[in-house]
Give the backbone structure.
Amino acid sequence: MIKLIASDIDGTLVPDGTDKIDPRMMDVIKRMNRNGIKFVGASGRQFASMYRLFSPVAEDIYYITDNGSILRDYKNVLSMNVIEKKDLWGMVRDAKKIPKSDIMICGQDWAYCEDEGEMFYWLRDSYKFNIKVVGDFETYITEDIAKMSIYRIGDCEEAVNEEFTPKWEKKFLIASAGTMWMDIVKYGADKGSSLRKLQNILGITPEETMVFGDNLNDIGMLEAASESYAIGSARDEVKAAAKYIAPPLSENGETEVIMAYLDSIGAE
């Protein structure tokens, strides 16, 4: 029997950068909880954005945030992977060399950028991030940072992979989080690693876990579950890594699969 369901957010449960979640998911999560099944949202988003997205059930679920760097419930941080400042500032300087790109760095509760560009307004107004404009990162940021993101419209992955990725990929996990985002975290800080930590905390096995995803940063998470689903609109690499293909996001594929599972076990 499934005891834990983990889901990516953008591209799997909601269109990228929106809060347009299938409203049935809140009742589905409540139904899961009544039947002893835990839910964890796993995203490149920060906790505040995810908490707002899941507001009706926000205190009843777990969170894998910042692309796997932070694992928490609604009150407590269970684990956090921190990027050393020397490496962080080196990556920031190299990312600034990528034309037409912008940079976000993420702490436990806040995200930061250097100016009020398009990225800032999108994160604040659409993703509902807690985000601040601070000017020069190296001058003003002293808190621990768990994730760095590079934003560029259209071909972010290609642009980052030209020079940035070859320089830093031996020390950091650099993965696409959508057509406009590349996320950088420490090795061992991906969604799959955090899901395994949560499984250990809860005493739940991969055979008791169901996972949904759509992008490259979800593959580690799919590998941590026996019941793994790529959403129908997922990248081909993700479909190849998953055991099953769910209907696409446009058809609320994840909701349909979970509802069918709950019906199959006679969940109340």
About this structure: The chain has a mean pLDDT of 96. The first helix runs from residue 24 to 34. The CA atoms of residues 172 and 186 lie 5 Å apart. The first strand starts at residue 4 and ends at 8.
